[in-house]
Amino acid sequence: MAAGSASRIINNPGKLVVGPTNAFDGGTYPYGGTEVGYVKAVALRNLGVAFAVMAEGLGEFNDILEPNNDYEFAFFLRGWDDDAIQKFMSSGYVAGGVSQHSLWNAPGSLTPGQTSLGRGITVVYVPDDTLTQPAVMVYNFIPSWDTDSDIAFARQDPMGVPISGKCLRNSSGNIIRIGHLPDLSLT
What's the rounded Cα separation, in Å, for the pair 135 and 156? Predict the structure, then answer.
């Protein structure tokens, strides 16, 4: 996730909640879900591609077909939060035998070519300022540790986990909602 593209969308500190079950209009944070940490920014990318239709007789385009619904959600979680690792990197998560803190191992339970639908989770970005900043609800997020991202173990840089993933339809047909938190719906 490039910092520039993230700041153009939402550059407002907030928290991520996984699996909310209570309504956002009057409900109590974390809305029946699990808080998985603070983020400085989130990025929602539309990767859908429109298709231009050529009118051969005219030699010009005469229609544009709407793009497909191909969205990606990305963020950088600050720290090595036990709940976050369990929710976003579930295929390799186990509790440490001594400390009982997150331990991640590869390959974990992943088998190349198998479906990832079982790892789908509902994620809500809750901005610190819910009165003026929009929230983001992703109904069926398939998280992954992006192949172009690093978990850096450095003295100068803060420890964090870069997570991105595809946004799929839920059973009600919803993919994403962006708006003020009380206006978002769980279904």
Answer: 31
pLDDT score at 88: 78
For 152-178, the DSSP string reads: ---SSSPPEEEEEEEEE--TTS--EEE
Q: What is the mean pLDDT of residues 69-94?
A: 79
Pairing outcome for strands 34-46 and 51-55: unpaired
**What confidence score (pLDDT) does residue 1 get?**
44
User: Within its chain, how far is the Cα of 51 from the centroid?
Assistant: 27
Instruction: For residues 61 and 126, give the distance between their C-alpha atoms in angstroms, rounded to a whole number.
Output: 42
State the residue for tokens 């910092």: 3
Cα angle 159, 163, 168; round to 5: 165
Q: Which residue from 32, 14, 16 is spatially nearest to 186, judged by alpha carbons?
A: 32
* N-terminal to C-terminal alpha carbon distance within the chain: 28
- DSSP lists the bridge partners of residue 10 as 42
One DSSP character per residue, 87-108 reads HHSGGGEEE-TTT-SEEE-SST
82-141 pLDDT, tens digit each: 777 777 777 766 777 788 777 777 777 777 788 888 889 999 999 988 888 899 999 999
